[in-house]
Amino acid sequence: MKITKLEIEQQSALISVDVQNARLHVESPQRRMKIENNPPEMSVTRQDPEVLLDLSSLKENTGLKTYDQLISDAAAKAKTEALVAVRDTVNESRFIADTAAGGNRIGRTAKDEMLSPSDPDMGHSPVPPGAVEMDGDPGTLDIQWSGYDFSIDWEGELSPEIYVEPPYSVEVEIAREPSIRISVSELDIPNPAGRKIDAEV
């Protein structure tokens, strides 16, 4: 005995889901400090000290005179001595001419001149050392500094760099397609046990 058999095979779909998380990157650059230092330059202006000596007085008193100085000194000395002589002569004349004084005025005058003290003439006179006039200039020393410069600069960016690598993504794909398979087959089965009844009632 043959029978027909209906067979249905069903295969479900298989879905694959791949999730990739995002990764955040933060990069902070390092800034570099640049220092510029220009040393100063020193300039020195110097004037040497100077001493000025005036030896004219010392030279005059030590006999180191010029012709003009010798003539001038001799003229001054002669004038002084002449004035003194004239003054003494006038005084003596007045004394002798004075009749009220009485006595022998001429003899008294001669006596006074004879007894008047006098310094011996040694042919020379002591020479004083004289004074040396000195004028000094201490000089100058001027120091100037120029060209000094000091600066600090920063190179590079200060703001951080932020980026996402890799980005967030979801990938969905069908790993297995769905399917339905229907088939019909015939099967042979043994006849059922029993007997045939062919009768009319």
TrEMBL record:
Tree of life domain: Bacteria
InterPro entries: DUF6470 (IPR045527)
Protein name stated in the entry: Uncharacterized protein
